[in-house]
Design brief:
globular; homodimer; Class_I_gatase-like (chains A, B); alpha/beta; four-stranded mixed beta sheet; Rossmann fold
């Protein structure tokens, strides 16, 4: 399986998907037919979201179609070389995919060799569940289980900083709550600018920022760039 | 109905529940028998959480019992003068209350005159749904609908600040996503240190920090201390 899971879409001072583009380019090989899933976008139209992604990746010479524009979304996924899932609200994304019966077709597409690319909510969707999302539960997704493409549970946009003077839970505290109810889980705090790449049966960490691995009752471990998860 | 909904439990440099204590004291009147619901606590034991709250409110001369220690939790709620719900993880709180059949007894208790006090997750639980929680969905609560004690949808710990250099969604962006899927909703961004007090059929804002009201397609409105919601 070939999978790219990015923490986020955009770094400060850089353009949309700029840091992801060379990583995507390396992973594409000859794949060019991309189905883009815009359902995490809720404050933008899906047309506009698809156009924004198409523009951002113009240099890669891809044929990108928005899944929302396809008459038969399941068939579109079945025929795609690349399944690309954008960020936004993870609950809205999972609900839309579940309601349209897309989760199993997406799994099958990746199993037969399509490249899965997701960022932020799209990275969460590839995990066993969306329990490590940072998003607001604006809709009920009908269960928290997700694509389970990787045996990794990613927290995207990971940071442990809080705005000054703020008393809400830190991200680590939130992750520790998850580990309290599911102590066998491992959670990867993937900071902005980093990604996990799966290829040839191996999952590797990319990006220069400190990535943290959280396990119950143990201090967080910092993973090095290139760390091999499996 | 008498209801106190606090954004949070503790301000920088102050002790636990210190800012809430005089507000609670005013609202208590002769009520002294408190049932404390600790189910939002997931990284602390429910015994320790109940003890912490009991200690923090010692000056109020209350009789506080932890609901988790009661043989018949529904009866304990039915007999309480005060139903107090602590913060922590809102998903865990709602799940525990739903599974134990406590939501309707809690509504009935408040309807017959018990004082409801909640902070953070406990304030979210009093709303129509928990869709404005900031918490991580560590468990599936079996639906996002909650106590619906007030026709207000509160976002506790409201701040629009992000850690420097962070590209995740601001709180306002997250709330705007909710308003995009439910445009008739009004969301109250309740900053730390503020509260909403319901008494004599009126709901009023308390606290000196700027509270924001969000409506779809309109700029946020800053509400004054003492603002009357209904």
């Amino acid at each position: 399986m070939d999978i790219l899971l990015f923490s986020n879409s955009m770094l400060p001072g850089a353009s949309y998907l700029a840091y992801a583009q060379p990583v995507i380019n390396s992973a594409l090989r000859r794949r060019r037919n991309v189905v883009f899933i815009p359902f995490a976008g809720v404050t933008t139209s899906w047309d506009a979201y698809s156009a924004k992604v198409t523009d951002a990746l113009a240099a890669l010479d891809l044929n990108i179609v928005g899944l929302h524009q396809q008459k038969d979304p399941q068939a579109a996924i079945a025929q795609a070389d690349v399944v690309m899932v954008g960020g936004g609200n993870t609950f809205a994304l999972l609900k839309a995919c579940r309601e349209r019966g897309l989760l199993e077709p997406m799994r099958q597409a990746v199993a037969r060799g399509a490249l899965y690319i997701g960022w932020s909510a799209g990275a969460n969707l590839a995990c066993p569940t969306i329990r490590t999302t940072n998003d607001m539960p604006i809709v009920d997704p009908g269960g928290l289980d997700a694509l389970n493409l990787v045996p990794l549970q990613i927290n995207p946009h990971f940071t442990n900083a809080l705005p000054q003077g703020h008393q809400g839970e830190t991200r680590e505290q939130r992750i520790r709550e998850l580990l309290a109810v599911d102590p066998l889980l491992e959670v990867i705090g993937l900071p902005e600018g980093n990604w996990i790449a799966v290829s040839d049966g191996q999952a590797r960490l990319g990006g220069a920022n400190p990535t943290l691995l959280f396990r119950a009752a143990q201090p967080a471990v910092t993973l090095a760039n290139g760390h091999r998860f499996y």
